[in-house]
Q: What sequence folds into this?
């Protein structure tokens, strides 16, 4: 892989297009979402809120809403709740060509499936009316009650009629491994509507994030979320999801990616030894991963030696599957000018900042 000089990289950063694949917008209040709900569920939202009856991580109190200190709108409201402020601070400031909205507010696991369906539908209608209609640079995520996949499929079919919805949004910590047949109706709807499934950092699930119990610190939960992504990748591959749905595309958002190469190595080695247990898999697991998965850059693992980063990319061997993400407005925001190492080759920088996403989502008529 070619290595660019810092001077070359800086020149490219000035003029390159940028597609941001992870922007977090949020309703300014429950009431803002309630107006898109039938009265029954608006009353339920008012009385019971959005927090699911599950144990999970909380954002650290030193970073309210997990947000950058400067991302609170000047007119009041939570970070990500004011379109005009987001346009100025993100879209205009960094010359974002397209931005993918991933509203985490309400995209959670609710055991009350009809309520989860109502919340998802309201969140999707709110995105259209208050974000996609007034701002053509933005694209939406379809929120679904994904623990009730039949209801999720209904919502996907409904929202997919609007081409401004770019993908289907899930959180990585689900009640069961995502390869289970329980979730297959959701994947069928994704393929039927030619939409990728984006799986984002977070969620609660039905158990602790580690195999050894609950961690003590937010630090552990935040850093260790990669261990929730790895078994989900394995589940999707080994359960035969991609044999059943050969056109399914999966995006891993805010997962990091340094772990992907050793995971592929380990899965391939075990496949050679244990493939009689998964006879439906016709290829080594790494081939399914390289065909069906995309990964966002935030957070970018940053070895001390630039050469080690180049080696990491070579080992993963998925240059056309990296997507740029800022994670705005969160405290670990990555700017387009500083997120990628200066040593990155100009061609690869272009692909990561915009070209890969344009190809995946069909932007620019691609």
A:
């Amino acid at each position: 892989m070619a290595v660019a000089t810092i001077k070359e990289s800086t020149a490219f950063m000035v003029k390159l297009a940028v597609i941001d694949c992870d922007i977090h917008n949020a309703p300014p209040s429950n009431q803002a979402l309630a107006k898109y709900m039938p009265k029954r569920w608006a009353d339920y939202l008012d009385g019971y809120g959005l927090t699911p009856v599950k144990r999970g991580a909380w954002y650290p109190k030193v970073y309210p809403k997990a947000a950058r200190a400067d991302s609170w709108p000047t007119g009041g409201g939570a970070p990500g709740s004011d379109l005009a402020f987001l346009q100025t601070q993100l879209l205009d400031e960094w010359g974002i060509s397209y931005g993918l909205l991933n509203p985490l507010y309400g995209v959670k696991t609710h055991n009350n499936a009809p309520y989860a369906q109502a919340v998802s539908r309201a969140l999707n209608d709110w995105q259209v009316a208050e974000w996609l209609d007034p701002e053509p640079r933005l694209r939406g995520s379809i929120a679904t009650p994904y623990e009730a996949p039949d209801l999720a499929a209904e919502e996907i079919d409904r929202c997919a009629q609007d081409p401004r919805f770019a993908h289907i949004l899930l959180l990585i910590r689900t009640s069961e491994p995502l390869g289970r047949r329980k979730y297959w109706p959701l994947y069928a709807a994704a393929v039927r509507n030619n939409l990728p499934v984006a799986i984002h950092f977070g969620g609660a699930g039905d158990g602790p994030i580690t195999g050894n119990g609950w961690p003590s610190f937010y630090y552990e939960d935040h850093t260790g979320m990669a261990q929730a992504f790895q078994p989900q990748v394995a589940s999707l591959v080994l359960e035969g999801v991609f044999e059943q749905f050969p056109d399914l595309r999966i995006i891993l958002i805010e997962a990091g990616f340094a772990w992907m190469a050793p995971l592929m190595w380990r899965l391939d080695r075990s496949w050679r030894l244990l493939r009689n247990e998964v006879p439906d898999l016709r290829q080594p697991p790494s081939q399914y991963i390289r065909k069906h998965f995309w990964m966002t850059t935030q957070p970018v693992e940053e070895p001390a030696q630039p050469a080690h980063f180049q080696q990491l990319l070579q080992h993963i061997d998925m240059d056309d599957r990296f997507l740029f993400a800022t994670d705005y407005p969160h405290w670990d925001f990555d700017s387009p000018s500083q997120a990628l190492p200066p040593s990155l080759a100009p061609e690869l920088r272009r692909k990561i900042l915009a070209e890969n996403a344009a190809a995946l989502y069909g932007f620019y008529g691609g």
The radius of gyration is 20 Å.
